[in-house]
Amino acid sequence: MDGYEKALEVMNELFGKDCVFALATAQKDKPSVRFVDTFYLDGSFFVVTHAKTQKVQDLEGSSHVALTNQFHRFTGKGRNIGHPLRPENQQIRKTLITVFEPWYFPHNDENDKDMCYVEIELIDGFFHKDGMGYSVNFLEGTAEIFPLERD
After folding, report:
1. Span 66-86, mean pLDDT?
2. How far apart are CA 65 and CA 67, in angstroms?
3. What's the DSSP call for residue 86?
4. 113: three-class secondary structure by DSSP
């Protein structure tokens, strides 16, 4: 297993579940940050939201985003992939319903035409687990793995 494959394995362990991240977007050079529940799958984080939220509105002007939580950080490009009931969203919908099961339906109305999913395709990131740091370039498919001591 090469470094990139190992890094993806650790990504799945750490973030292939309901994780809270601070999501930063920007509109006209004005940054905005909020906490969101995310789920990682195959090089992207997914967020369940509403098309009229500030974060989705910001993405229409600039797709560049940053995510951070507990010394983990990522940059990527976010986009509204549309309503959960769109045919192309059926597979990710099944997964998100399972991952976010405690709150998915109580907090989301799939009858609302503006409910949507945001996909954040990752560009690069840094995370750590068990004393090892991972610096990943998702575009090039490379990773640097190194011992990491937290102070």
Report:
1. 97
2. 7
3. S
4. coil
The DSSP secondary-structure symbol of 142 reads E
Please give the C-alpha separations between residue 44 and each of 30, 47, 86, 130, in angstroms, as whole numbers. 24, 10, 19, 23
Task: Tell me the pTM.
Answer: 0.96
* Residue appearing with tokens 């989301």: 108
DSSP-derived letter for residue 28 is T
Question: What integer is the mean pLDDT of 48-71?
Answer: 96
The confidence score (pLDDT) of residue 129 equals 96
Cα dist from 93 to 13, 55, 65, 109, 148, whole Å: 20, 20, 22, 13, 36
Contact 129, 146 (CB under 8 A): no
Tokens at 5, concatenated: 């494959």
CB 134 within 8 A of CB 142: no
DSSP assignment, residue 83?
A: -
